[in-house]
């Protein structure tokens, strides 16, 4: 394990950045890199793996909590980095990725730490060029709208050689979070990754990929299948590096009809989960389809361990649709965090109650990521209310 970048050094800005905020930029254009932060042991020590156990479907004493985009621009400490350092530099420099992953965990005492990265990160390893452009979001420059482009994709191969920062980041995080909180890794779903590539970035209607799906369905399925294999192996590599739970993000599920999901997305997502489970049978897998609450019944047999639901469905309806035996995650509306303390605490209590009560095969989460501009105190209210609801 390489821990060099985790300890006190003085390196050029172009090579490394401070592990602690605020950034310590010196007059000689270098940044001091101090030792990694120390997380507190939970007030109830056995809660250190409460999220891991809940994701497996085990009975726990209270509902554990983490949040999608918990490492984000709503935090002033995070903006110290995001305002001056490009996204890929942040996510692919282990010392920075570790710091950004831990800021929110240290601040709020969350039950889960998810590594700071992007669903597009592994695309580099299979021959896809991409970047995150400030003000535009993810941009893909490799053309995968043709069979020639799809055929040119390589296998994931040796991730330690192609994406060496990943192991250093996850091993560093696991060292710090061990006995304190659960470490999550994640991947994009095969369909969403394929759509991103064909659309070459964000899209309002996904028209280019949908055109491929209807005009060249076999070609679309070939691309999706390649992504399924890559995502499964990439997730398994994350587990090998220290991740304890994997979440699959079907981020663009809102672009699919139930029929589209069943024909194109679901078989590939199940294949990804099968690959993960074949290599890491004891690792819980959470499936999240953003905007997929319209077809929750199609997610009952994904093959994973937990289904995360978005905020556009009532939790009671989601629980009834999925059944009491399927562990569920979600689904407080992230917009509620712009409300009052009373409104936020009430939303948490309502969500937990409708999910079946504290510890009832439920992991508290938002129904989407924490939004920019969310008051930090609002997140604190949500976390505190969730933690005090126990059996």
Automatic annotation (TrEMBL):
EC number: 4.1.1.37
Pathway: Porphyrin-containing compound metabolism; protoporphyrin-IX biosynthesis; coproporphyrinogen-III from 5-aminolevulinate: step 4/4
SUPFAM superfamilies: UROD/MetE-like (SSF51726)
Subcellular locations according to the entry: Plastid, Chloroplast
Key word Lyase present: yes
Lyase found in the keyword field: yes
Main localization of the protein described in the UniProt heading: plastid
GO molecular function: uroporphyrinogen decarboxylase activity
Domain Uroporphyrinogen decarboxylase (URO-D): from-to ranges: 64-73, 184-200
Keywords: Decarboxylase, Lyase, Porphyrin biosynthesis, Signal
GO CC annotation: chloroplast
BP GO terms, sorted: porphyrin-containing compound biosynthetic process
Pfam families: URO-D
Record-linked Gene3D superfamilies: 3.20.20.210
Reaction equations catalysed: uroporphyrinogen III + 4 H(+) = coproporphyrinogen III + 4 CO2
Signal peptide: 1-16
Database matches in NCBIfam families: hemE
Protein family according to the UniProt entry: Belongs to the uroporphyrinogen decarboxylase family.
Cited function: Catalyzes the decarboxylation of four acetate groups of uroporphyrinogen-III to yield coproporphyrinogen-III.
This protein's name: Uroporphyrinogen decarboxylase
């Amino acid at each position: 394990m390489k821990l060099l970048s985790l300890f006190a050094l003085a390196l050029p800005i172009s090579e490394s950045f401070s592990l602690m905020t605020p950034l310590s930029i010196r007059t000689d254009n270098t940044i001091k890199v101090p030792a990694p932060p120390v997380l507190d042991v939970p007030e109830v020590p056995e809660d250190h793996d409460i999220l891991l156990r809940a994701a497996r479907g085990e009975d726990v004493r209270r509902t554990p909590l983490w949040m999608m985009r918990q490492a984000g621009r709503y935090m002033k400490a995070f903006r110290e980095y995001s305002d001056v350092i490009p996204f890929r530099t942040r996510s692919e420099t282990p010392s920075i990725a570790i710091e950004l992953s831990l800021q929110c965990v240290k601040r709020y005492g969350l039950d889960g730490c998810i590594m700071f990265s992007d669903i597009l990160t592994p695309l580099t390893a299979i021959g896809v060029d991409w970047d995150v452009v400030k003000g535009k979001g993810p941009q893909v420059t490799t053309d995968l709208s043709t069979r020639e482009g799809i055929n040119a994709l390589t296998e994931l191969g040796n991730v330690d050689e192609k994406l060496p920062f990943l192991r250093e980041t996850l091993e560093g995080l696991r060292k710090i979070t061990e006995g304190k909180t659960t470490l999550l890794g994640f991947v994009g779903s095969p369909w969403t990754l394929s759509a991103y590539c064909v659309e070459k970035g964000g899209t309002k209607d996904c028209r280019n990929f949908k055109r491929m799906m209807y005009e060249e369905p076999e070609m679309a399925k070939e691309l999706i299948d390649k992504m399924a294999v890559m995502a499964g192996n990439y997730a398994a590599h994350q587990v090998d590096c220290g991740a304890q739970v994997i979440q699959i993000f079907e981020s663009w599920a809102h672009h699919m009809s139930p029929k589209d999901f069943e024909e194109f997305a679901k078989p590939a997502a199940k294949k990804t989960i099968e690959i993960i489970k074949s290599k890491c049978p004891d690792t819980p897998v959470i499936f999240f389809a953003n905007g997929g609450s319209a077809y929750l019944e199609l997610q009952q047999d994904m093959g994973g361990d937990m289904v995360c639901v978005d905020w556009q469905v009532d939790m009671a309806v989601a629980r009834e649709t999925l059944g009491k035996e399927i562990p569920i995650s979600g689904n407080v509306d992230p917009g509620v965090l712009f409300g009052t303390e009373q409104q936020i605490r009430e939303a948490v209590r309502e969500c937990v109650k409708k999910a079946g009560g504290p510890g009832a095969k439920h992991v508290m989460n938002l129904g989407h990521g924490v939004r920019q501009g969310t008051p930090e105190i609002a997140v604190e209210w949500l976390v505190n209310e969730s933690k005090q609801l126990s059996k």
